[in-house]
Amino acid sequence: MRLSPITQALLAIYGAAVAPETGLLTPLSPTSVSGPYTPRGMAIHPNSEYLYIADGANIVIYQIHSDGTLSLSSTIPPVTDLPQQIVISADGLNVYVSTAVGGNNLAIHQYAVSGGGSILTPLSPASIVTSTFTSSSSAIVMTPDDNYLYVTDFYNFLVFQLQRGVGGVLSLLTPNYVGANKPTAMAITPNGFFAYIPYQSGHTIQMYSIISGLLAPLSPATVNVGSVLYDVKVSPDGNYLYVTSISSNAIFQFSIDYYGQLTPLSPASVSFTGANKLSFSKSGKFLFCTSYTTSSTGNIGTFSISSGLLTHVSDAAASSSGNNLIATTKNGEFVYSTGTITTDTNIYQFSES
């Protein structure tokens, strides 16, 4: 497979081609250019043409060109709020950003999307305050049918639950929230029936049913797993779940039964140093995992998937500061990853055709 170089300013960028049979990522050259802020949340428009980054100061929109290069499209400052996490509705019509208002109250900014993804216009109201306490949002996710949205409050052990109405305007459900111990991430099954939330320091995954948008703990409500849990993803077919543990240096793997309960696979985990954030390839045959590390080089690991079991097949050297966020375009051509320490955004390019 021929690689075409990717050259880009403003961001640290990596380009890579993936061998469809191995999932191998081969970085292109040049390897990196520093960016201005530390990215905290990242999402890609369903049309695979725009990438959005919440960098703690602004919402930054980049156009994704056909060759994988990025160009700055626009920067949206949310006044005094601090953008943390970002999600795009599956229909591509709305963007929602969780923010800390002045570093305290947790709010959700809501936008209408136009221009194929290049323009964000605030809705009315422009934001909804969900918490009046000192807060930090660690995840914002939507059900696959776009009808409901959830935002986690890490400091206050809560998950707020909202309904998406006409024009994409959000409203809080009743009750407004459910309890969840130190929620670091959240994943929802493709059928929208179940949700899973890692308890960062509690060695458990919290399991919920979803009925009319409301979360309710399953019985039993938790399953044991490693410590310092960071990310969780459900496989595209809805049959398996994966959760990362930085301190255990592992990705734990589970099957999901008809009732949403998790059962550890055998083996229960695969090793990966600093296992952090996860993203699937378009085909669902591969899982990519970033490595959170303070060493000189971070890696993105590629894992093949067979009957739910992961096999570590390759690593791609990426950011010199380690890697954090990762996202794959819907068309399967590109993967983007950000650094953990420096303001470093990396791009991996691949095709599964």
The backbone outline, from C-alpha atoms, is globular
Number of strands: 29
> Strand content of the residues, in percent?
over 45%
Order of helices and strands: EEEEEEEEEEEEEEEEEEEEEEEEEEEEE
Q: Helical stretch count?
A: 0
* Rg: 19 Å
Tell me the helix content.
under 10%
CATH-defined superfamily of the largest domain: YVTN repeat-like/Quinoprotein amine dehydrogenase
For the report, how would you describe the main beta sheet? Answer: 4 strands, antiparallel
- Overall mean confidence score, pLDDT: 84
The first-to-last residue Cα distance is: 11 Å
The figure for the number of domains is 2
Per CATH, what is the topology of the largest domain? Methylamine Dehydrogenase, Chain H
Strand order of the largest sheet: 3-4-5-6
Descriptive overview:
With 353 residues, the protein is mainly beta. It has 2 domains: 1-33 and 280-353, no CATH class; 41-279, Methylamine Dehydrogenase, Chain H. It is built from no helices and 29 strands. Strand 5 (59-64) and strand 6 form a beta hairpin. The protein is globular, with a radius of gyration of 19 Å.
Brief overview:
The protein has 353 residues and is mainly beta.
What is the secondary structure topology, with strand pairs?
Elements: E1 16-18, E2 25-27, E3 41-44, E4 50-54, E5 59-64, E6 70-76, E7 81-88, E8 94-101, E9 105-114, E10 119-131, E11 140-142, E12 148-153, E13 158-164, E14 170-179, E15 187-188, E16 194-199, E17 204-211, E18 214-224, E19 229-234, E20 240-245, E21 250-256, E22 262-271, E23 275-280, E24 286-291, E25 299-306, E26 309-317, E27 323-328, E28 334-339, E29 345-349
Antiparallel strand pairs: 1-2, 3-4, 4-5, 5-6, 7-8, 8-9, 9-10, 11-12, 12-13, 13-14, 15-16, 16-17, 17-18, 19-20, 20-21, 21-22, 23-24, 24-25, 25-26, 27-28, 28-29
